[in-house]
Structures are given as C-alpha cells and as structure tokens.
Amino acid sequence: MIRLVLLLILLAAAAFGVSWLADRPGEIAVVWEGWRVETTVPVALAVIAVVSGVLLLLWRLLSLLVRSPKLIAAFSRRRKREKGWQAVSRGLLAVGIGDNAAVRQARHDAARLLPHEPLTHLLTAQAAQLDGKPEVAIAAFRAMVDDPSTRLLGLRGLHMEARKAGDKAAAYAIAEEAASAAPTLGWAADAVIEARCAAGDYAGARTVLERQMAQKGIDKAQYKRRRAVLLAAEAIALEQTDPLVAREKAVEAVRLAPTLVPAAACAGRLLGAAGELRKAAKIVETAFAANPHPELADVEAYLRPGDAALDRLKRIRTLANKAPSQRESAIALARAAIDAQEFRQARLVLEPLLDDPSQRVCLLMAELEAAEHADIGKAREWTARAVRANRDPAWIADGVVSDRWAPVSPVSGRLDAFVWEVPPGVSATPILEHEAERVKAAIAAVRASEDAKIAEQKKIAEQKLAEEKLAELKAVETKAAETAAAEAATSGAAVVVAEAPVPPEPVAAGATPVSKITAPKTPDPKAGKAAEPVPVILAPPAGNGADSARARARQNGKPETGRPENAKKADAIVALPPLPDDPGPEADATEEPDPTSKSRRLMGL
C-alpha cells in the first residue's frame, strides 16, 4: 500500500514537471563545427534521455559479453546443484518407502552431483543400511563426524550401528561423546543413563540428568519423575546391603513421586523394618489409592514381621478402604481372609468378581475351595477355568513382560518405560505363577491331611485286627485248655506238670541230653483220689544240643533264644499213663520187652 502511494506521488510529480515545462518551453541552441541546432527544452531533455538509454544498453551488452564465461559457469553449477538436491529428495523419499533400487539410483546421482554435501553422506549411509552393508554406512557416518555441521548426526548414526552390532561399549562411548557435546540431546542422555543403570551406577545416571536439566533439556515435572525413578532403583539395589542409605533414597523418591509404586513399596518395607509403622502405612496407602498394586498390598500385610493372620487382615481392610471400587482391593482382601481362615468373608469379597473372573480370581477360588472344604475336584475346576480367564496386569515395557519393575527398558533403554498394564497376546503373566503356587500348596495340604487320615485309619484298623487276632488266639488257647482238661477228666489223660527247674547236669561230649518230666499215675477209682505223680525219664527228640536247650527252656518257662522265626513249634510231650502190663519207666532198660504185652498195649491204645 505504501509503495502504491509512493508510485502515485512520483507520477503526479512527473506530470506536474512535464506540464510545467510545457508551459515554459524556452529555447536551446547548439552550434558545433558550423552546425546550429535549435530546439525547445522538453525536446532536448527527451533527446538526452534517449541517448542515455542507448548508451546504458550498449554498456550492459558489452559487460555481458565480458562476463559471459563466468555467467555460464555459474549457471552450470546452479543447474547441477538443483539436480543434486532433486536426487537427494528422491533418495530420502525412496528410503522412507523402502525402494532399494530408487535409493541406489538417487544415491549415485547425488554422489555425482553433490559429492561433498552432508545430506549426500546421509543418503549414502541410509542406502547402505537398506542394502545390509554396515561397513559402508559406518564410513559414511564417520565422514559426517569430520564435518562440524554434521558431527552430531554422524555420532547418532555410529551409535545406532554399534547398538545393532551389539557393541555396547562402543555405543556407550559414542553416546558419552554426544552428551558431552550437546547435553540437551535426548537420545544421548537416555543412552548414557541406560548404560550407567545397567552398570548399577545410579549416581552417575543422576549426574547426567542434572546436567540435562541445567541445560533446559527437559521440563521440571519430567525431571522430578526421572529422578524419583533413579532414586527408587538405587534404593531397591541397596535394600539388602545398606538399608539406611536405601531408606533415605526411597523416602526422597516418594517425596518426588508419591504415586510411584516401586518407590512406595521399597520405602514401606524399609520403614516397617525400622519400626516407623505409621509413616510406612501412610506412604503405602497413598500410593495404593492412586495405583492399586499387589506389591503394595503385600507390603501393607507384612508391614510388621511376625504378625498373626488376623492382624494382617485388619491392615488389608484399612488399605482396601482407600480404593474400595478397585478389583485389586478385593483380591488383596480375599487373600488375607483366606490366610486368616475367614473363608466366609473371602467368598463374599470374591463373589462380585465371579461374573467376569480373571486368572488370579479363579486361582483364589481354587485355593478357597481347597482350604475351606478340602474339595480338590472344585479346586481343579477353578484352576482349569483360570486357563481361559481374562489376563491380569503385569509390568511391560516395549512389549517385554517382566515379573519385576526396572528403571529402564531392556529393549530401547528408555527411562521409566515400565507400566502396569494387561499385556496383549500373552497367555499368562508372571504374577499368576505366585498364585498358582498358593493353590498347589493348598491342594498339597489337603492331600497331606487326607493321607494322614488314611494312615491313622489304617493304623487303627491294624491295631483292631491285631487285637482281634490276639483275642482269637487266647480263645483258641482257652478252648484247647478246656478241651484238654475235659478229656483228662473223662478219659484219664495225663496232664503234664513241670517240675521246678533243676540245674542241668554236665553232659559228656557227644552224649545226648535227656529231659525229665513228671507223669501222673493212673487214677484209682476205688481209692477216690488221684495217684501221686511218678517221675518219667523220656529221651529227647533226635537233634543237636541247641534243640535240647530249647526244649529245656520251654519246660522251665523261659523264652527261646537263637531260634529262627520260621521254625515250627515243637509238639508238647505228653506222658501216657502206664498200662496194666507196662512195667513203667522204672523198669530195667536192659530187660527184654514181652511181645505179648506190646501187642496188648497197642490194643489198649
């Protein structure tokens, strides 16, 4: 608008000047070498303007002819540069779509037209990466490092190639160099933090974070979160070796990020072990209210070591009231109730979750059935349902499912990458294994109880059977004794009466020992009383001295020694009453027996 106004002002001034000269034409006379030229002032000015324009045009033409070689060379360079940039643009687009043939052609054109351009080196490196030629890519990145304008780009490329090759030391060194040159570089700071965290140097990782914050590389909220993560990781690492330092760092981490679950759990454990139960409970309850997590429930339950199951149940009730509508609160309360054998409360808490149970809920029901009713069948049924139930959350980072939290991702090295979510496409989570172990323990306890009952019943049955057999043996012995007494009373059978034990007489070597028993005489019916016992000497059965010793032991009422278990009991020796024609044991052993009496004795028997 201003230019238009100025143009209008100039046109008005020119028109005013022309009109002013037209009103005052005047005269101009030029005399030169006999020539006289007369004209007016406007005409003279017009002639002067035309001549000046012609002279200026001639000068421009002459200058163009003089500078034509340089102009042609500059035009050629400009044209070549334009073609080179077009080749770089085509190559970068081809890299984006993955067209290897187009990338190679564009790289060739760019290298021919723009051999020293940084983007040409970048295109060469990316083309080599697509073709699987890491040595060419590394050479291109090193060429970029030599150029100050592309130094950081070259270091990033070398860092990526080192990570692909698995050379962690080289990748760490390159990241350190890049972080020192530019502390605000996020990839370099993250790489250095990852390497130092992997080495357990959490203090060094915090130094890098402090330097990044000093250069305004991250905002304050992000700085607090990352610092809390590093402090929590260091506290967990020092929890067993240096509890005092670990407690300080865990408390500081909770102050920076009160909802960070690992920091709150670590601080709760350490403060509980130190006896600061109120502070520990406050930290755990604050974190649980924001992020319900089973680890926080475990810390709250075992805040004071040695507490009874009912005391743990009371604390879990207080914790569940901080997040009453959360599923994790019901699960934690049910676990504590099962441990305290409050089975009715556990069943009431789990009942609202049975419409759409998760794997942990199914396993808790299996444990409840096994613990309350000792029903292994229902426990196995709930365990089978857990296979098809909804998955429970777990710690995941970049697709990796872990059973514990870590400060950096094992894949990308990103700080604070782990989140508590349901992992997609995973059949079971690590936390499920803990619940499965509880179910196994409950079923094993049921089986052990059943085995103990069966063993007790078997023992009782065996005792009853032994008592019955002993009673039967006693009955048989009593009946046999009664039968023998009855037969002796009716038929006059002799009853064996053992005399007092007599010290054994010395027996010559090779001689056969004899046993001495007493046999009663035949009762005299006329006399009205039993006959006096008459000593009878009987030869022992054939055998060695040990058999005779056992026979004497039986007669004396002493237990046998040295007798095999499978040996049969010796038949009782019964002395028959003397027959009328029997001379008895006191007869002369050398007297010849009467054959007639022998036959009569057999008939008498």
Strand arrangement in the largest pleated sheet: 4-3-5
Biggest sheet descriptor:
3 strands, antiparallel
What assembly state would you assign to the polypeptide chains in this entry? Answer: single chain
* Alpha-beta content class: mainly alpha
The secondary-structure element order is: HEEHHHHHHHHHHHHHHHHHHEEEHEEHH
Strand content: 5-15%
Cα gyration radius (Å): 58 Å
SS summary, helix count? 22
Mean pLDDT: 79
- Outline the low-pLDDT stretches: 493-576, 578-582, 584-605
Detail the topology: elements first, then pairings.
Blueprint: H1 2-23, E1 28-32, E2 35-39, H2 41-97, H3 100-113, H4 118-131, H5 134-146, H6 151-165, H7 168-181, H8 186-198, H9 202-214, H10 220-238, H11 243-256, H12 261-273, H13 277-290, H14 294-301, H15 309-320, H16 327-339, H17 343-350, H18 359-372, H19 376-388, E3 394-397, E4 400-402, E5 419-421, H20 430-491, E6 515-520, E7 533-538, H21 545-555, H22 595-604
Antiparallel strand pairs: 1-2, 3-4, 3-5, 6-7
Helix pairs in contact: 2-3, 2-4, 3-4, 4-5, 5-6, 6-7, 7-8, 8-9, 9-10, 10-11, 10-12, 11-12, 12-13, 12-14, 13-14, 14-16, 15-16, 16-17, 16-18, 17-18, 18-19, 18-20
